[in-house]
Amino acid sequence: MEASREGALEIVRKILEKGANVNILDNERYHAVHFAAKGGFFEILKILSGYGGIMGVIAMDGTTALHHAAKGGFNECCRFIGQRGCDPTWKNLLKQTPRAVAKESGFKAAGKELRKVERLFAKFSKAGVKNPNPPWAIALHDWSFENQASLRTAFEEVDKGGGIITQEEFAFILQEQHAPVTQEQILTLALLHEKGRTGTVSYEDFLKGSKYLQKAFLISSYGPKKKKGKKGKKGKKGKFALLLPICTISESSLARRKDGGPPQFMIESLRSITDPIRFDRDHPPENPLEDDSAWYMEELEKSYSNIGYIIKAGDLNSLKNAFDEGVPIDVKDLFYKTPLILACAYGNMEIVKFLLQKGANVNATDNFEWTPLHHACHTGQQDIAELLIMHGAKIDAVAMNGATPLMRAIESCRLDCVHFLLRKGANVQLVNKKGQNALDIAMAYADYRLIDLIEAKIESIPKPKDEKKKKEEKKKKPGAKPQTPVVEPSATVISPEPMPEKKIGSVIHQNTLINRGATNKVNITFVPKAIAIPQLTTEELIRQREIRRARFSYEVDFEDFQMPFNKNIIERARLLSENPK
Known about the structure:
Elements: H1 2-6, H2 9-17, H3 32-39, H4 42-50, H5 65-72, H6 75-83, H7 98-105, H8 108-124, H9 135-146, H10 148-157, E1 164-166, H11 167-176, H12 183-192, E2 200-202, H13 203-208, E3 266-268, E4 304-306, H14 307-313, H15 316-324, H16 339-346, H17 349-357, H18 372-378, H19 382-390, H20 405-412, H21 415-423, H22 438-445, H23 448-460, H24 467-476, H25 507-516, H26 538-552, H27 564-578
Antiparallel strand pairs: 1-2, 3-4
Helix pairs in contact: 2-4, 3-4, 3-5, 4-9, 5-6, 5-7, 6-8, 7-8, 11-12, 14-16, 16-17, 16-18, 17-19, 18-19, 18-20, 19-21, 20-21, 20-22, 21-23, 22-23
Protein name: Ankyrin repeat and EF-hand domain-containing protein 1 isoform X3
ANK repeats: 1-27, 335-367, 368-400, 401-433
Keywords: ANK repeat
């Protein structure tokens, strides 16, 4: 206590290392924490907490360590003691809380810290509210921080390389070092610090404490914040601003369903309720009468998915169902992308054909004013680009930054796509907002096949003639005589006479129908409770996979598959890193 009162840091540590009782009290029930808080000795408070010191002891005069820290205006001490279990709402004999003491003493910063502590204390004192920073975890963190050197030495002795040890070794070292945790809590810690389900633990993460405590409760969060130094003669760096802000649809402008459901771009994901024991994709029910699964199987709840995920997965059944229910064919998601734009971006030919048959707009634009043709060329899909142009897509559509589909095809480095666009008359002389034309972009991507192709196209363009030569040619040509239009005799069209309608509303006719029973017909049409969702057979799935491999190469079956543009960028970045010169 005397060492804590005087702020003798090393003496306090040596006494505790020798086995002194950290929680002993004097005649007035004063704890060593009281004296450390009164002097504002934050480092001593950390040592006392690391050896299991109780922060919430109440003295005979009704004061806690928080009262003394508040009276001295020690901000960090107030925050530390409040986080370590001291009641911030406790009143002393003068009926003052620690915050009232800080206010009376004129310490606004300390009062602000105590207000935060009071809010957290009130929040986690309610019944049923789980504290994300349990007391045992805080005590363990303080203990591990104080014993960091010995723990690190023990961990390094069994280190497997890269700061990794097994869970058994982790648990054994904590027990050997007498950590203030139970066996169940050690298991919880091992699971939190597990690396990739391999049964190993990163002890560096454990020593930091960020896996089981929030950042504000870590000892590393205390102290003055480091300020970034100035770089050279440059001025103060302002806030980061996007060169091209990403535009999204506001919530108020989103088209929602009439029944108040999710936005229209969130569509129902159909799931089959057919009994998998009786039927499968290769042996589906022959008719709705045979499939009575809906009568005894549990009904599935409706689930809605973003239309982009549905298109990426190739779920054509869910798309058909959504459009049958009234979802517009050109519905836009948060980034103004229509289903056709998304299908072109993912290179799904089947869905592109389906949407074009439904009448999708081939010249719709997204938030960057890319058309479906831009996306098709960017993914290097020559057949999709051909289909879009057949349905009226603008071949020289200009995006927000001035880029054309030809420029996107060049970026993907797909020779067949670029050759097709040139054959269809794409303009190679258009420039973007950076002043680059198609040849400049091809040179930037250093694909010599495309450079040669575009140079040949530019050379084949006829040079414009001078205005003087045009005027001379017009003078040399004799004036052509105006041709008189030949008026053809108009043919007279004889309109057919309207046929007289048969009157069938007579009383005799109605009586005859009643006598025959024609008006009492009963509708016996069978309406099944649920219809099985058509699924692709195994043979069709294999065929579909073969088509995807032919379109995107064999790499499409792997999780790290990249579209041509991304793959090209990654490959060139790798080559530059290997050969920096």
